[in-house]
Amino acid sequence: MIRTIRISGFGGQGVMLTGQLLAHAANEQGLYSLWVPTYGPETRGGTANCSITISDKPIYSPVFQKSDDLLIFNEPSLAKFGEKIKSGGNIFYNSSLIKKKVNHDDRNVYPVPMSELAQSLDKPQVANMVMLGAYLNKVGIFKEEVIIESLKYFLGPKKANMLEINQKAIAIGFESVN
Questions:
Q1: Radius of gyration from C-alpha coordinates of the chain
Q2: Are 74 and 10 in contact (CB under 8 A)?
Q3: Is residue 69 within 8 Å of residue 4, measured between CB atoms?
Q4: pLDDT for the residue 40
Q5: Per-residue pLDDT at 98
Q6: For this protein, what is any one GO molecular function term (predicted)?
Q7: Which residues of 99-112 are buried (b: 16+ CB within 10 A; e: fewer)?
Q8: In angstroms, rounded to a whole number, what is the distance separating the alpha carbons of residues 108 and 80?
Q9: 3-class SS at 40?
Q10: CATH number for the 2-176 domain, one of 3.40.50.970, 1.10.10.60, 3.30.710.10, 3.40.920.10?
Q11: Is the pTM higher than 0.85?
């Protein structure tokens, strides 16, 4: 098994944390994982994307042209990576910011109103966790308890108070694609 994932959006949308979380959780489940970040010239507001490779065997290269899964947080990212997905792959996109219809005949497309759903929790910062929840629902690779433990790890003691709202965001995202 080898799974390639690309996550892309504006800096500050949680693109990197989402990718790190998936790579860490895969590792905690006994899988091999690679996380490769790519930043634009700015941190907040600039473009950011990351590539994650997960496998049950050693991974010899972090490079891939087309991914199995694509998580898109904004329209510029859709323009850049929308066609860089394998046939039969999954496209999850932020339908709160991307208003045009995303249509691919040979791919699974999941509109996720991640920004609106995060706003409904009065915490727009957890929009990435909404998207993560949608992704977890449809892909089925990760165990929920491992994702939560990985989230605790990345939040650390300084942000432990954010765990509950992040869990709610994951749950709302999970339900959004049923």
A1: 15
A2: yes
A3: yes
A4: 66
A5: 92
A6: oxidoreductase activity, acting on the aldehyde or oxo group of donors
A7: eeebeeeebebbbb
A8: 18
A9: coil
A10: 3.40.920.10
A11: yes
